[in-house]
## 1
Amino acid sequence: MEHHVLLQILIPASGLVSGLIGAFVGLQNRALLAEVRRELAELENRIITRINGTYVRAGECRLREDNMHARLEALVEEVRNRNAAGL
């Protein structure tokens, strides 16, 4: 009879422990997944910021280069006009 009572206690206890372990592992998985998603979002933001910075810098360089060419052309034209007026 003692053996039967022991089994009546042991089987539900093992089910309870198994359920608690399963719940704990599930919560750990959720926490880990949330952390991975957060880190992935941060990495994505850093990549996007770097790409945007690169394109902005390249665009600024082109704009400065175009502006420099325009200034040089204006200076060349001004020097030509002065030379033509001086002759």
## 2
Amino acid sequence: MRLSVPETARAGEYRNRGVVLDIRPVCVAEPSCRLDHSGPLVRVPVEMTEPTGVETVVLLRLANYEVLGRVAPDTRLAPGAPAEFAIDTRKLCLFNPVSEMLIG
């Protein structure tokens, strides 16, 4: 899977090199939250859900990695079933895999 990330001055130095991608839970939400950006929609398996009252935290499988997301408390997702999520690529973080310093 390819995700476009915002270009920063430092990120350009790492083009075509390995980096660590950090997808924070705030970057993953139900498709209706995609109103203000054009990030991708992905259909991925839901591993588990945890209602917290104000939101539901979702553990999903994205390209063989476990990723946390947040959805509205009334969003019903079935563990083990695929569901569609919006990825807000504007808030993704890239890290240098050796120094662990933030790239962008």
## 3
Amino acid sequence: MTQRILVVEDEPAIAESVAYALRRDHFTVTIASTARDAEREVAGMDLVVLDLMLPDSSGFDLIAEFRERGLKTPIIVLSSRDDEADRVAALEAGADDYVTKPFSPREVVARVRAVLRRVEMPVTPPPRDFPVRVDLGERRAFVVDREVELTRVEFDLLACLLQRPGRVFTRAQLIDRVWGDGYAITDRTVDSHVKSLRRKVGDGGAGPAVIETVRGVGFRIASDSDPEPPE
């Protein structure tokens, strides 16, 4: 089934270039030039590409409205603002990714595919008494049945690792599944996020050893079964 993308952008040239690139990649695309149009078109969409500066509303307000309505549709923000504060504000409001202008339409397509991979990522249920679990639909993580606050990246890392407890995920695989194409992510960046995630899991009562480092390869969720090799 073809996935449907809503492009919310009031600059026709940008909207058409992004839509053209997405259609070439076999997505079905609808363009909305205002927040009001976006509100009308968002139902049934698989992902929204959203410009922050709209003629009738702020993109921040539109994200908040969608989330308050209970819409879990992934949102990728387009913005000419490259300040870290704006990026953080958009992600905290409920956006799933943030792309700064100028950008390549192909980069947007790569980001769309990366976000869709993350939200569709299947999770193999760990053993019933396993201390760590995630709710993908609500994007909530629990350690020993208590919710823990994770950043977007930490949550996606944990969800990826929990796909198959015992399997080793290489750093390259984690970069592809959590960040996607278009990011200049180093192994050190991955290690830093895993370190923070491990600390939060440990503080939550599960013990930091739940996330194991396989030296020279990557990371895995500890499992009583024999670990699987990296693919």
